Hints:
- Helices cover 48% and strands 13% of the residues.
- The protein is an alpha/beta fold.
- It folds into two domains: 2-80 and 157-220, Phosphoglycerate mutase-like (Rossmann fold), CATH 3.40.50; 82-127, no CATH class.
- A four-stranded parallel β-sheet has the order 1-4-2-3, with helices on both faces.
- Strand 5 and strand 6 form a beta hairpin.
- Helix 6 (138-156) packs across helix 7 and helix 7 crosses helix 8.
- The longest helix is centred in the middle third of the chain and has 19 residues, at 138-156.
Amino acid sequence: xxxxxxxxxxxxxxxxxxxxxxxxxxxxxxxxxxxxxxxxxxxxxxxxxxxxxxxxxxxxxxxxxxxxxxxxxxxxxxxxxxxxxxxxxxxxxxxxxxxxxxxxxxxxxxxxxxxxxxxxxxxxxxxxxxxxxxxxxxxxxxxxxxxxxxxxxxxxxxxxxxxxxxxxxxxxxxxxxxxxxxxxxxxxxxxxxxxxxxxxxxxxxxxxxxxxxxxxxxxxxxxxxxxxxxx
Length: 231
């Protein structure tokens, strides 16, 4: 499972890669081919940032005359609607702590303020203590991601090497199930997943285990020391 490159925080359209995100995706694509990751199938969510992260890899396949793997698009691997969660859940939190207003007023100008609002809203949503009729529940999100993974497992067993281009939330959701994490720990884990990082699982038709978590050494060794990002 591969997290998308850095998205365009603070712009009119978050769901596209930033300039840094494009570089991250290119570096990742070169790394994947260098370690001979010939994928049997590639799956992406429906979001633009998922597809844009995949594009450099497809370009390299073509440049090197390699056969393109089959590509499937599955909405099971879309991220949760974090902006919807903030708009619906954070007002409920403000009723309990009006001091949070100072962060809300700087939401898209200050990354630290955004992180404060984001963390409190997402944790509140995942806890089940704060809900809105306009939002899917956290458990619904987990069921969606689980259904996507189950589809892969039942379809391919242990005979395939599959890349899933997705977001941090779905990756953390799968890890939550595999390691039986609490909801809070799963959410906090998702914030540690770097852009354009790789998390590996081994699976059969009925069993899945975590193999590696959050690999991004190819970004660390790149000439730009600021290439490792989390937002």
